[in-house]
Amino acid sequence: MPPMPGQQAALDLAAPSGWRLAAGSHFDLSGGGGSASGASASASASASASASSSGVVVDIVQAMLDETLHAWRNEMHAQVQNLHLDLLRQFQMQQTEITAVLESWRLCDNRHLLEEIKALREENARLRQLY
C-alpha cells in the first residue's frame, strides 16, 4: 500500500534474523550532527559520536544486506539445481518414450515388409509357372 501524502514510506529490509527498519525510523549517515554554537570540544565530541554511530549503522545495514543476499543466493542456487534435475528427468522420460515409439514402428514395419516379401515370393512362383 503506498504511503499517504506527508507520510514516510517504510523501508523494510527484512533479513533472516528478522531485523527491520520501520516507518519513521531513519539514520543520519551524513556524519554531521554537531552544534555550531557549542564549544569546539563539544562539537568535536558530538561529531565523533555521530560518525561512530553512523559507522555502526552502516555495519548493521551491511550485515543485514549480506545475510539477506546470502539467503537469496542459496535459495536461487537450490531452485536452479531443482530446475536442472527436472529437465534431466523430463529428458530421460522423453528419451524412453521416443525409444518405445521407434521400437513399435520398427516392429510394425518389419511385419509389413515380411508380408510384402511373402506376397512377392508367391507372385514370383506364379509367374514362373506361367512362363
Q: How would you portray this structure in words?
A:
This protein is mainly α. It has one helix at residues 40-130. Mean pLDDT is 75; it is low at 6-16 and 18-39.
At a glance:
With 131 residues, the protein is mainly α. It contains one helix and no strands.
Biggest β-sheet strands, sense, barrel: none
Number of strands: 0
Secondary-structure element pattern, one letter each: H
What class do helices, strands and sheet pairing give?
Answer: mainly alpha
Mean pLDDT figure: 75
Question: Poorly predicted ranges (pLDDT <50, ≥5 residues)?
Answer: 6-16, 18-39
The whole-angstrom Rg is 39 Å
DSSP helical segment count: 1
Approximately what portion of the residues adopt beta-strand conformation? under 5%
Dominant shape: rod-shaped
Q: Estimate percent helicity.
A: 55-70%
- N- and C-termini, Cα separation: 97 Å
Explain the layout of strands and helices.
Blueprint: H1 40-130
